Each structure stands twice: as structure tokens, then as C-alpha cells.
Amino acid sequence: MYTGLISLLLIVGCKNSDAKSEHQQAVAAISMVQDSTATEEEEIAFPPPAIPLTIQNAHERALYYVQHFWDNCDFDQHKLLQSPKKLEQSLVNLLGVALYFPVDKVQKSLIYPLERSQDSLFLFFKNQYERYLYEPQSPFFNEEYYLPIVEWLAETPKIDLTTQEKTKYFARLMKRNRVGYLAEDFQFLTSDSVSYTLSNFRGKATILMFYSPGCHSCQEVIAKMKENIELRQLIQSKKSNLLFINAEDNWDVWRGSIEELPSFGIAGFNSDGKVTEVPLYDLKYSPTLYLLDQEGKVVLKDTTFEHIMERIKEL
């Protein structure tokens, strides 16, 4: 369960809505946080920054809030960890506003508590960042903001050399298939042993789903796809592609399960194993869903079917 201000999470959940620009949402987020922390300071670990009255522009006030967020935190490990929920709420308040600004404007503030903390407090911040920014089910999931944190962790002497090497490997993996960049190409076979590559499908928007036969969550998404008339029309009118890729099971298991998939999609088996063995993709869960644009660039990753259907209309 993720903590946080319900109203703030509602704003974050609507981040891609056409009803408000990201600028307007950032202003709403900072107002919500300021109002809440001003009246319920017992719910957070330390007072929020005092924004100078001379800063009148709402966007600048929001950025000041993020960049000076830790001004009133003394990083007293024993005091802060007496109320971990309050400290977590404080971090949620920061993320709820920071994610509306470019990474380069807020990454210093995100990394700062890791620089200032030690031992258990350091681990607290490290684990919370992973939980909120890296886990797809988090309302704040965003690898672009998590990547500079991971790169910093890979170099800090606060973790041992073995963990540093693992973190460096993790950072390299995170740099693959980033939003706005080309998706890694790979080869796959269809059930009649015809070979394709992902790049063969450029020219149309592509829904790419990595899945495993028998996976309950996969079956739920597949059922939604079968029932979705809009998706069927997009694929059958040849405006978009729908690819189901199995990268983890053996050929016979996969081939015996493809009848479960929507008939209007293309089922493929990553026969050379590079998707998971290199690995070319960070498959956190099954299923893992991507949306690619006509050039093969990543639009959405580790996303939901519902989110894909919202965004594919724009491509």
C-alpha cells in the first residue's frame, strides 16, 4: 500500500489528462501540499520550506519548494526514524511536485537526502526511492527520475563494492528502452517458424506485450484485449500492430498456448533468448507492456493496457 495525500495522488493520476497542462497540475500539486502541510504538520517529519513572498509566480514557487525541500530537515537518524510513516509522507510530498519538472532541475534535491544520511536512514531513503520510482504499480513510477539516483548509488562508498557492481549493471539495464528512445531490436519466430524482428513492424504504432503462458495477470490483460472493440479495429484496419512475445518458456509450451491469444494479434517466441539473457529488456513482471510509436521509439513502458489505449489515439 502506498501512502500519500489522496488529493495529491489524484492529481498525479491525471497527469496525462488533456484537461490540464502539466504546468497547471504542478501549480495544483504545490498548492495541495502547502495547504495540507500547513494544517497537518503532525503528519510529516519536518516543516516544509518557507517560500519567500517575493516569489509570486506559481511555477517558480513550486520549483523553489522542490529545490529547498530539505532546508528544515536536520537528518537526525534517531529522530526521523521514530516516525517512518511521517518521513515517508514527506518524501511523497516532494515526489508529488518534483515529477512535474525536468529531471535536471530536481535531481539534486532527490539525491540530497542520500548524501546527507547514514546507515539506517540512508537505507530508508534508498528503499523508498526504489519503491516509489521504480515499481510499476507505484503512482509515482518513473525511471527517468530514478536513473540519476541509481547512477549516484553506483558510485557512492556508502554501499559495498559488490552492491556497487550490481547497481552499475542495473543502471546500464535501465538505460535500455527509455521513453523517447528506440526500443531494443530482437528476433522472434511465429508459430509457423517464420522469423521476424521487432524493427520489421516500424511504420505503425505497436503494442508490445511480453507474457508467459498460464500467467494469471497475463490472462486478465488478454481477456481485456479480446473484449476491446477499439483495439480490434485498430489492428484489423492495419493502423497499429499488436505483438505478444514469450521470452521465458520453451517452444513447445509456448506453441501449445497461443490459441489463448487474440486472433488479431501476432504471437512470437524469442528463440535466441536475448530478451532475457543479455538482457535487452528489464522484465519486472509478467506481463510487461510497451507502446512504441511509428519509428519504433518507446512511448510508454511498464504500463497498463488502459493507459496504452488512451495514448495510442495520439499516434
From TrEMBL:
Parts forming coiled coils: none
A Pfam entry, by short name: DUF5106
Endpoints of the signal sequence: none
InterPro entries xrefs: DUF5106, Thioredoxin-like_sf, Thioredoxin_domain
Gene3D superfamilies: Glutaredoxin (3.40.30.10)
UniProt domain Thioredoxin: residue ranges: 177-315
Source domain of life: Bacteria
Name recorded for this polypeptide: Thioredoxin domain-containing protein
Protein's organism: Porphyromonas gingivicanis
